[in-house]
Amino acid sequence: MTLRFRMSYFFILGLFLAFTACQSPVAISAAKPAASALSVNVAVSGGVTSAQQAASRSLMSDTSVSTVNVQVTDANGNVVGSGALARGTSSWAGSISVTSTGSLNFSVQAKNSSGANLYQGFQTTLISASGASISIPLSAVVGVTSLSLNKTTDSLTTGKTTVYVPTFNTGATNTLLTWSSSNTAVATVSTAGLVTAVSAGTTTLTAVSQDNSSVQASVALTVADASVVIHYYSTGT
């Protein structure tokens, strides 16, 4: 390689490197493809009889039902699909798009125009391909109409805990309660109904039905300071 050729080579190489150094770097990214949605055909129908009702209730003949909604979750509780079904001649049915496969949980609620849940159903189904068809049986929801606690008055000493046992009308479906204390400085109550006596005084503990907020029960609680017992022993003199 001659000296002149070598000088020309390095000169051209230097120009190329200087040129490329001035250019802005180009970022190359690959978009992550969106999860493909699968179509699952869901149907709910049939006569639904509840032994706790004065008469049988049929989903298809119940004209008060205005919407039937489906929510789909995976094994971890993540929502992977939802949708509404349409009333047909023999069933409420529709196609629900889901973004996952495997063992999926289908939860169905049939409600009236006021949003009250009248029928409900739950089913776990293995979904592996689009076009699967499932039929979910529903049961009539029995509303909460009465509630009582095992005590109406009670007394505790500071530091003690207790729970009050609720009783609902026969067959009530949703037995969840919202608890509260009128004086949390005297006693507190957890969401699960655990009462803890804090300081001397009085308070009212109230349980309200989450199904029907007009149904509630309460306990009048009196808290006293924990007494200190002193024992005297005679020496016999």
Detailed description of the structure:
The protein is mainly β and 237 residues long. It is built from one helix and 19 strands. The protein has one helix at residues 3-22; strands spanning 38-44, 47-48, 57-58, 65-73, 79-87, 92-98, 102-112, 117-127, 132-135, 139-140, 147-149, 153-157, 161-163, 166-168, 177-181, 187-189, 194-197, 201-209, 216-224. It has an eight-stranded mixed beta sheet, with no helix packed on it. Strand 18 and strand 19 form a beta hairpin. The longest helix has 20 residues, at 3-22.
Envelope shape: elongated
Distance between the termini: 126 Å
Give the proportion of residues in helices. Answer: under 10%
Structural class: mainly beta
Radius of gyration: 34 Å
The unreliable regions are: 21-35
Strand proportion: over 45%
Strand order of the largest sheet: 9-1-6-5-4-7-8-10
Rounded mean pLDDT is 82
Number of helices: 1
Tell me about the largest β-sheet: 8 strands, mixed
Number of E-state strands: 19
H-E string: HEEEEEEEEEEEEEEEEEEE
Short description:
Helices cover about 10% and strands about 45% of the residues. With about 240 residues, the protein is mainly beta.
What's the SSE blueprint?
Blueprint: H1 3-22, E1 38-44, E2 47-48, E3 57-58, E4 65-73, E5 79-87, E6 92-98, E7 102-112, E8 117-127, E9 132-135, E10 139-140, E11 147-149, E12 153-157, E13 161-163, E14 166-168, E15 177-181, E16 187-189, E17 194-197, E18 201-209, E19 216-224
